[in-house]
Amino acid sequence: MEVLESRGELKRIQEPVSPYLEITEITDRVVKAGGPALLFENVVGPSHRTASPNVLSAVMNHPSIHPAHRPTDSRKYDFPVAINTMATRKRMSLALSCEDFEEHADRIEALLKPEIPKGPVEALKKLPWLLGELKNVPPKTVTSAPCQDVVLQGDDIDLYKLPVLTCWPEDGGPFVTLPLVFTHDPNTGKRNVGMYRVQIHDKNTCGMHWQMHKTGMRQMEDAGSKGKNLEACIVLGGDPVYNFCAIAPLPPGIDEMLFGGFIRRKNVELVKAKTVDVMVPADAEIIIEGYIDPSERKLEGPFGDHTGYYSLAEDFPVFHVTAITHRNKAIYPATIVGQPPMEDGWMGKAVERVFLPFIKLSVPEIVDMHLPVEATFHNMAFVSVKKKYPGHAFKIMNAIWGLGGLAFTKFVFIFDEDCDVQNIGEVLFRMGANCDPSRDVMHTKGPVDQLDHASVAEGFGGKIGFDCTHKWPGENGFTRHYPKLITMADDVKQKVDAMWPRLGL
Ligand SMILES: Cc1cc2nc3c(=O)[nH]c(=O)nc-3n(C[C@H](O)[C@H](O)[C@H](O)COP(=O)(O)O)c2cc1C
Fold first, then answer.
1. Which residue's CA is the closest to the ligand 1 atom numbered 5?
2. Active-site residue 305, yes or no?
3. Would you kindly state where each structural domain of the chain is located, as residue ranges?
4. Reported CATH class of domain 2-99+135-334
5. Could you read off the pLDDT of 88-116 as tens digits, one per residue?
């Protein structure tokens, strides 16, 4: 908050505002206009004054709305709500402790492709750089932490005391939208941190929406096969870099908190939770501690989701709260998802840029990649490649459908290396000009986002790739002469560059 405020990126709002739909409506308008981060300092239960008669009766009669969120309740929450904190390129970069998040892509590229020193002297010169990059990686353990200033257990636990947003009119209830779920692998003890939405069911239980392909779900199944519950902590706030780590497509077994230390160039400090055997970030705002019984399910949703549609209500695991701890004067962090562009668009963009070097490590022919925010990222990928042999584009499509989170991509378009895939105009031009749908298309099937409502089955569906590269003689049945792309001669361009100021154009 301090960094955002000092940069003129934060607007404090004192107007009384309800977490029931109103914060979403305000934030949606602000995010679409590229506006500032918001700190709602006066969050109150909905009042007759602010709700329209239609909204009022809908809310009053909706069985899933807890009394705390009903219009008659004008309670003031103890926690202000921070939202839209990462919703521009600048703020997403600040969240990653840098001026532009491409810096981290450069750091990772340098680490992954180190130039072999020419001799021992050069090697020694490089050592400080390498140590500097890696010294902050391991997390540190501390014994006391601000996130445990206040410890609530037993009858003092009440999730309804948090200003959890009910985002959209048809949502099944209030949802925690920026939760960092910390768990440990029951076999190896290794930590996992994932962002999985959390629906408030009642005072001390909530939903745990880890989807079928996610690590949290795997760990819960493993705990179940040992006949055990899975302990977990839902962490809210702390260094915003943790949000990025939680959504980062790190391979299972790679600790998100190591990655966090690398990104923020400072070791993450962890403290043991009060009632479960889980380590949590010391600087967090609020921690919800508890466990999941792997055999238990409860209806979760609907939820106005990042697909731009309501994800359907379905049975998901249940989280039982054993303690809530928080800072004195804690701030409740939130985001909203819905029709793009939203704040998660910038979170996804940062993932795309920072993880490109890792992707290039496995598929070095890839030059650049663009997952358009309008297609909610995993629906579509534009990829430029250094084409070296006939059918190369099809090899890249297969690689993408085999890579971590990219495997969910429904539509893949492959372009030559000279196509700027960040430029939608150029992408559409190349697609239209170079792709013959009867020859340059490949269909396949596989896992898709569990939230995809259009797929043939839940979590499983079709994928299609388009080869939009220039075709080579004989390639995939192409027998015609392939024309050259029109470009101007370099010497003429230089001459015109030189005369340009005199032309008065
Ligand atoms: C705002 C936001 C909300 C998300 N909500 C969920 C969710 O409810 N369930 C889920 O499985 N993934 C959700 N994700 C995606 C996961 O956080 C992401 O796939 C992450 O890499 C999962 O971690 P894992 O691979 O360790 O399971 C969300 C991402 C964002 C940015």
1. 196
2. yes
3. 2-99+135-334, 363-477
4. mainly beta
5. 999 999 999 999 999 999 999 998 887 77
